[in-house]
Amino acid sequence: MSDEEGAMQVDVALVRQLAELLDETKLTEIEVEHGERRIRVARKAAAVAGYAPAPAAAPLPAPTASLPAETPTTAASESGTPVKSPMVGTVYLSAEPGSKPFASVGDKVSEGQTLVIIEAMKVMNAIPAPNGGTVKRICVENGQPVEFDQSLIIIE
């Protein structure tokens, strides 16, 4: 009996690359499939919550072609704490189509409460409130693509 007939052969270098990709992109899970072989690397979702507040202190990036030109200017002129996207993906304002949004303008939110979900590479990542307060403005629309460090919600 050869090694190929017994246990599955694991490409350790690929697993390491996927783990590094998780660190770089702040994703919670990644899966690669090739033929009948499938490799999935995941880490606890709590790690995403630790990264969400960090971009808030970063300076606003230069506008890109995919962002409306008024987004950085409008967000910078408002008072309150902007909740920014920790990744590139698609933003969803509710858990599923037709359900109540996680937060609406005027809602009181508490620290750690889920505000939106960002889908990146078929993984849903909950984005929590970095602090408690009142939702002053929602800067994105449901199903809209978002960029890293883009303002999602303003909390006052």
Description:
The strands form 3 sheets. A 4-stranded antiparallel sheet has the order 3-10-8-5, with helices on one face. A 4-stranded antiparallel sheet has the order 7-6-4-9, with no helix packed on it. A two-stranded antiparallel sheet has the order 1-2. It folds into 2 domains: 12-42, no CATH class; 59-155, RNA polymerase II/Efflux pump adaptor protein, barrel-sandwich hybrid domain (OB fold (Dihydrolipoamide Acetyltransferase, E2P), Beta Barrel). It has 3 helices and 10 strands. The protein is of the alpha+beta class and 156 residues long. The chain has helices at 12-25, 46-51, 70-77, and strands at 29-34, 37-42, 81-84, 89-92, 108-109, 114-120, 123-128, 133-138, 145-146, 151-155. Strand 6 (114-120) and strand 7 form a beta hairpin. Helix content is 18%, strand content 31%. Residues 46-58 and 64-76 have low confidence and may be disordered. The chain is elongated.
Q: What is the multimeric organization of the chains shown? A: single chain
Number of discrete helical segments: 3
What kind of sheet is the major sheet? 4 strands, antiparallel
- Following the backbone from N to C, one meets helices and strands in this order, namely HEEHHEEEEEEEE
Structural class by secondary-structure content:
alpha+beta
Q: Looking at the structure, what is the overall shape?
A: elongated
